[in-house]
């Protein structure tokens, strides 16, 4: 088209699917992988660890202390230190993000399980629930709102944090920011920020939806009260 | 174990090099820069967020602002924001970099200050009014001391954020310890990358310890329940 710089829509159209590694659609896929894997891994690891901390109370203090320290570590130097172990791969971004997620989710799991009222637990015992069934059918469902609140924090911050990985060449949509800086040009920055915030909003919305589906009694109770 | 030996070799190379300790690019100078930028951003964030959080928590007006800012700050990518401000405002001064640093560190302090004031027991607030204290006095003598643990938690979370973002900001030309990491990575000088990373991690840990200490010193013993209230 004309001689001036391309409009943002033109730029998107030209770079969406060029078949190269740095096309927007490829960066989007990478971004999703590097943020979703840590979110899921953090939950999978935090559940048993949180359960262990509730079962053996002395474990909680050292675990949460360690996780607080981990959470305070800036991501960029951690990526850099991991490069010598895992190379310039997606794993280098995924491992630290998983730990940050666990730092939020372990306390959430512990608080969630502690929020189960004592009389509910005793009722379950009196009804003859085995410890495993009590955990799966009574305690975990009651813990869902607190755990999912933690998941929302983890999902949104993981999705935005992936972009720092661009500084080691593994940042998903963050690659748009480094490209825009090296070759001063605004459209990639805007597209990157908008797509990342949009991804975060979608993830947040899905988790809110999951909470509604997993805790139907919350709405049922409200319904009878009104 | 190969990576571990090279890791220590890089550390020795970085910290053993006398050139790395002197001049404007030396470790003491870079450390001071990192401290300056982080402290400046955190100070500005505290000056904006604490009064705003106190007022919103006390009056209950503008609560939507707190929720939106908290969610937005988490979702906004720091690197994108930094690049955007630098492209918009140029690199003539440090402000194009400091502004996003402040923007991102306001919400944690704002949210926690607000929650802290909001969470003060209403009976305590009524008792203060009943004793004849006026609005401003209630805020200063009762609400702030009781909310202090949460306000300090907000500052601690912001400090984590600021130290990390200052590191990333080196990519857009800001000085500080991030320079070793960014420049070292660009020139494949891994001694500089590893040494710089270790310095930043240590810096972040020291900041956390200082905040833990500040919490012990500043929070009234009655509030933190270190001494039983009778």
TrEMBL record, chain A:
Residues 28-207 form the ABC transmembrane type-1 domain. Belongs to the binding-protein-dependent transport system permease family. This is Osmoprotectant transport system permease protein. The chain crosses the membrane at residues 32-54, 66-87, 93-113, 142-169, 189-210. It is found in: Cell membrane; Membrane. It is a multi-pass membrane protein. GO terms for biological process: glycine betaine transport; transmembrane transport. CDD domains: TM_PBP2. Its main location: membrane. The keyword Calcium does not apply. One of its GO terms (cellular component) is plasma membrane. It comes from the Bacteria. Pfam families: BPD_transp_1. InterPro entries: ABC_transp_perm/SBD, MetI-like, MetI-like_sf. It comes from Nonomuraea fuscirosea. Keywords: Membrane, Transmembrane, Transmembrane helix, Transport. SUPFAM superfamilies: MetI-like. Signal peptide: none annotated.
TrEMBL record, chain B:
The chain crosses the membrane at residues 37-57, 78-103, 138-155, 162-182, 194-214. It comes from the Bacteria. Coiled coil: none annotated. It is a multi-pass membrane protein. Keywords: Membrane, Transmembrane, Transmembrane helix, Transport. It holds the Pfam family BPD_transp_1. One of its GO terms (cellular component) is plasma membrane. GO terms for biological process: glycine betaine transport; transmembrane transport. SUPFAM superfamilies: MetI-like (SSF161098). InterPro entries: ABC_transp_perm/SBD, MetI-like, MetI-like_sf. Residues 31-211 form the ABC transmembrane type-1 domain. Gene3D superfamilies: MetI-like. Its main location: membrane. It is found in: Cell membrane; Membrane. Belongs to the binding-protein-dependent transport system permease family. This is Osmoprotectant transport system permease protein. It comes from Nonomuraea fuscirosea.
